[in-house]
Amino acid sequence: MENWINRLIADRHKNLPKTEFQNIMKIAAENKEVISLGPGEPDFNTPEPIKEAVKKAIDENKTHYSTTGGSQELRELISKKLKKENNIEANPDEEICVTTGSTEGLFLISSILIEPKDEIIIPNPGYMNYNPTTSFFRGIPIEMNMLNENGFGAEIEEIKKKITEKTHVLIINTPSNPTGNVMKKKELEEIADIVNDNNNTIIFSDEAYEKLVYNDNKHISIASLNGMENKVMTFQSFSKSFAMAGFRVGYVSGSKEVIKTMKRIRIYSTLTNSNFSEYAAIEALKTGNSYSEKMKIEYERRGKMLHKRLNSIGMFECNKPEGAFYMFPNIRKFKTNSVNLSNRILNEAKVLVVPGTEFGKYGENHIRMSYATSYEKIEEAMDRLEKWVTNFK
Ligand SMILES: Cc1ncc(COP(=O)(O)O)c(C=O)c1O
């Protein structure tokens, strides 16, 4: 019986890569002893005024369908925000579409811009959605190695080699999940030059962590660079910036032809966002950045401590935190692979970390540690690791 049903499942669903991530998170949730450095979402609660705005919206019966591309009020606020914070000009009626988190944006835009056999350059290690989404639409993922001698970042020469007339999309993600790297202006300009010379390629710029940038680093949207207006689809989100992951609101900005197509396909997928979640997003944009700023200061404090502790343990090598809430230390001194090491850390030190290979093959020799958990817990996790390393054989 089961085989018969299996035959009905479309092939494109059968070849999706398996990931250990859900398993790992389940172990952490079930085992109270474990300190999890696994989370991919803020540990902060949604700011009170945002929650109040939703309660009010529900009481006022804002429980009907919204508009397919997002309410007019929300799109206008997004357009102002894009101009002020990202230096991107986007017409609220034609060049912005609100989405159910940036995940829906990536999926729908991929459905529009990826044809079978198109080559899609994706960061590796990179956010775990890019490869399966590309494969789902029968595109060919071309891995761009993001680890180089100077740390993490796109190797411009590698992009030049890999970009061909078959390259339809180049995906960049800054600040990066999983490396925490923030792309520098020069690097973005070089990428913009490459794409400007190639009339087949559009950039997907995933900026989910745009507000979490530390030290002297600065978030720059590649769409704001000269000549890039029509060559970039920018994906942003309320999930990380405003601790609103459960509200599922994000947005895409870019070419009006693509956004028009997106609104059409959205009618057949989600139709509209949750109406009251849009009110949460409206309140977030009206309140400005004071909450994001407070969260950022705390992440920065944790990141600094984590960096210092990891380096003092001596077996982990890592750069200063730049952005997002991840550290991606090199573990080569342990002389074992990242899955083995993560298992041992989990079983023996009772600390959950994510193997680097969950983010692609070039993530080998690294583990991801999230600092979206309290300062005290991170300190405790480092105490455990320090002790564990002393006895490591
Ligand atoms: C790099 C990156 N992009 C996009 C997302 C998706 O975010 P959301 O769908 O909540 O907006 C995530 C979530 O972890 C992420 O890490």
Structural classification: alpha/beta
- How would you state the average pLDDT, rounded? 93
Q: Alpha-carbon distance between the termini? A: 49 Å
- Ligands bound here? pyridoxal-5'-phosphate
Q: Which percent range describes the beta-strand content? A: 5-15%
Elements, N to C (H/E): HHHEHHEHEHEEEHEHEEEHHHEHEEEH
Low-confidence stretches: none
Considering DSSP H and I runs of 4 or more, what fraction of the residues is helical?
Answer: 40-55%
Give the domain tally.
2
CATH domain class of the largest domain:
Alpha Beta
Tally of individual helices: 14
Based on CA atoms alone, the radius of gyration comes out at 21 Å
Strand order of the largest sheet: 2-10-9-8-7-3-4
Walkthrough of the structure:
This protein is α/β, with parallel strands linked by helices and 393 residues long. It has two domains: 2-46 and 291-390, Aspartate Aminotransferase, domain 1 (Alpha-Beta Complex); 63-287, Aspartate Aminotransferase, domain 2, CATH 3.40.640.10. Helices cover 41% and strands 14% of the residues. The chain has a seven-stranded mixed β-sheet, with helices on both faces. The protein has a three-stranded antiparallel β-sheet with strand order 11-14-13, with helices on one face. It has a two-stranded parallel sheet with strand order 1-12. Helix 4 packs antiparallel against helix 11 and helix 12 runs parallel beside helix 14. The chain is globular and about 60 Å long. The model has no long low-confidence stretch (mean pLDDT 93). The protein binds pyridoxal-5'-phosphate (PLP). Pyridoxal-5'-phosphate (PLP) is lined by residues 40, 101-103, 127, 173, 177, 206, 208, 237, 239, 245, 250.
